[in-house]
Target: Mannose-1-phosphate guanylyltransferase
Amino acid sequence: MPDLEAILLVGGQGTRLRPLTLGTPKPLLQTAGVPFLAHQLARARSFGVRRIVFATSYKASMFEPAFGDGAAFGLSLVYMTEETPLGTGGAIRNAAEALTAGPGDPVLILNGDILSGHDIGEQVRVHRAKQAAVTLHLTEVDDPSRFGCVPTDEAGRVTAFLEKTPNPVTNRINAGCYVFTRSVIDSIPRDEVVSVERETFPGLIESGELVLGYADRTYWLDVGTPTAYVQGSRDLVLGKLSSPALPGPTGEYLQLEGARISPEAKVQGGTAVGARAVVEAGASVVGSVLSDDCVVEAGATVTDSVVGQGARVCAGTVVRDAVIGDGAIVRPGNELQNGVRIWPGIELPERALRYSSDV
Ligand code: GDD
Ligand code: MG
Model:
């Protein structure tokens, strides 16, 4: 397959992932030991993508220091920024100024928060063979109301695009990876706020253009919520999705440089232990993300949670399905559960919070 160009959408604010995204944009959050995007970049490269234009907005200046010109990834990377966010369509149109593809060439567009095992090469082949205007990767989820609902006919032609509808007509949803014919991108108005989901796709379907679905049932996850983000990291460490970007041996856990795990601690379930993080004796950490320089003290229990950079979970504390912000301290006698989020730098005094399932 000839070299392929891509646009990566990374300008969103990651609101649902606060407080993790207050200091770091969602695509740069450490996931299985590397910035989330490293997994997407490596997979894209493995399918023949050689040049990627980043469509940045929120915390735009943080991307180039993380990935540079892309040479380390075997890619050529270009950064485009919207002064004010232009929405998904406006971002694609703005980033397209940096493309080299000709009008009839396919261009890959990726949402910057997706882990997917699908065959991008096959998606591009289908797009070319059928000469579609756009070919959307589709997957199936239990709750389609949180996504773009995408019904198709028997031939795979998309018949409607219903973004976040309360009454989905199918479980098949937009998986956030598109092949656009370049000239179709150029037809999106410039310097305007445009949503591909609410305007461009419905408009193309309405005017009779061929919008195709490429459906499959491989691994797929949008890491846009804390629960999903922790799951993504865990699945990568457990090998449920292979990634060429994993920084070391994986299995029950992944450990970055300088991490210290007591031989009397239990660390398992796909936990990622960040650089210089400490897990003391008798602590139990399961299926979680421990960020760089954090400490889980003796006898503490951390399950399905994120412990932020430099944060401290003190002796005996219980943390389950929770997010502890960077630098926060959770003093002994606390029990954090059920999606609780502690903001960065907060010190939770002894016995301040206790969750009881009886309440
Ligand atoms: N540059 C730029 N500018 N990027 C943006 C902007 C913007 O104004 N708005 C959003 N993005 C980026 C986000 O960073 C993310 O990578 C991508 O566009 C999608 O935004 P999300 O905020 O993650 O959208 P979503 O998850 O609610 O819904 C989208 O993804 C679903 C699949 O995960 C939609 O495309 C749905 O139709 C789809 O089902
Ligand atoms: Mg998303």
